[in-house]
Each structure stands twice: as C-alpha cells, then as structure tokens.
Amino acid sequence: MDLVVTILTVYGMSAIVTQGKLFEPLRDFSEKHSPDFWKYLTSCMQCLPFWVGILVSILHQAPLQVNQEAFPLFLNRFFTYLLCGSLYSGTSMLIHTLFMRLKQGS
Question: Rounded to the nearest 5 degrees, what angle is found at the Cα of 36, between the Cα atoms of 32 and 42?
C-alpha cells in the first residue's frame, strides 16, 4: 500500500508542475529563457517523475533495492535510484495516459 501511495504522490507532484496553473509562469519562463533540460523537465510528464522519483527514493525508503555483492556500494545505490526513477516515471506516464484517454472519451 505504501508503494501505491508513493506512486500517486510522485504522479501528483509531477502533474502539478507540468500541467497546473500554479506552475505556468515557471513553464513559460523555462520555455523562453532556460536551457533545454529545464524546458523539458517542467513540461514532460515522463521526465519529471523520473527525477521526482529519484528524490523521493533518496528521502524515503526506496521500493527497489539493488544489492549485488560484486558491485561497490555506490554502484548499488546508483542502480537502486535509477530503477526507482524509472519505476516512478513509467507508472506516472501510465496513469497520465489513462487520464488523457478517459478525458478524450468524455
């Protein structure tokens, strides 16, 4: 249940930044004045959840753990956060796509 709540939290945070009125000035500023990374980050519903997911995994217990004995600790952590970011990005994109399809259908 904790994983579902975390996935929905990452999705919600990402949706607010990429689509909410509150962050529209940030998106407009990024579109005009910032490097491509920030422009895409503030408008991409697949990119932002990746980074939010990594941050949430660092601050909260990561739902996936890589513990390969052959890897040094820093590589285990790197792959743990990479997998967590990918998990949150993929699930957020799935939720976003479902909402957009439902919205188009009504």
Answer: 75
94 within 8 A of 11, measured Cβ to Cβ? no
Using the CB atoms, write b or e for 23-36: b if 16+ within 10 Å: eeeebeebeeeeee
Please write the tens of the pLDDT for every residue from 17-59: 999 999 998 888 888 887 777 878 888 899 999 999 999 999 9
Helices (H), the chain: 2-19, 24-33, 36-41, 47-59, 73-105
- Residue 81 in contact with residue 50, Cβ under 8 Å? no
Residue type present at position 25? P
Give the whole-angstrom CA distance, residue 43 versus residue 40: 5
Cα separation, 98 vs 81, whole angstroms: 26
64 within 8 A of 88, measured Cβ to Cβ: no
